[in-house]
Design a protein that fits this description.
With 158 residues, this protein is mainly beta. The protein has one helix and twelve strands. Strand 4 (39-46) and strand 5 form a beta hairpin. The chain starts with a strand and ends in a 10-residue tail after the last strand.
Length: 158
């Protein structure tokens, strides 16, 4: 049974002072580094562009997973990662994104960002890489410059 649909417009590496798009979903087929876990993902036309549409099954931890195309990404010049998420449903949906370093247990060497995607609206889901990327306030629930800070310790973005 599939109950929740979310659209992802692009995956953007957020760095100061520029942003770098690492996946735009503009070119079919689905990215080869995309793995689906209890989900069904397709590329669709939405709001004049392309988007990744994901249907989530009713199970613990359904997700889509992007592996590094060459085994690793070098995000050492970035502060975090952002995904624009659209909720086409009639109810709010909690969304999360976790970024792992090799050897993670899901907590150590891992950071998580969370947001609520309101019905019929776009939401930016962001995850910061750790203390060095946002300054001395790491550990607070929210920071004026970075917004909500998710659980987890910092990761090595390189």
């Amino acid at each position: 049974m599939l109950v929740q649909t979310i659209y992802a417009l692009a995956i953007v590496l957020t760095a100061m002072p520029t942003q770098v798009t690492i996946e735009s979903f503009e070119d079919p087929p689905l990215p080869i580094n995309l793995k689906m876990n209890n989900t069904v993902a397709t590329l669709i036309d939405h709001d004049g562009g392309r988007a990744l549409q994901v249907y989530f099954q009713v199970v613990d931890w359904p997700n889509v997973y992007f592996s590094a195309p060459d085994g690793t990404w070098d995000w050492s010049r970035a502060r975090g990662l952002a995904v624009d998420v659209f909720n086409p449903g009639h109810e709010a949906a909690n969304v999360a994104m976790r970024i792992d370093n090799p050897g993670t247990d899901g907590s150590d060497k891992s950071v998580t960002g969370q947001a609520t995607a309101l019905p019929g609206e776009w939401t930016e889901l962001r995850t910061v890489f750790g203390p060095a990327s946002i300054g001395p306030f790491w550990g607070m629930r929210g920071i004026a410059v970075a917004g909500p800070v998710g659980p987890g310790k910092s990761i090595d973005p390189a």
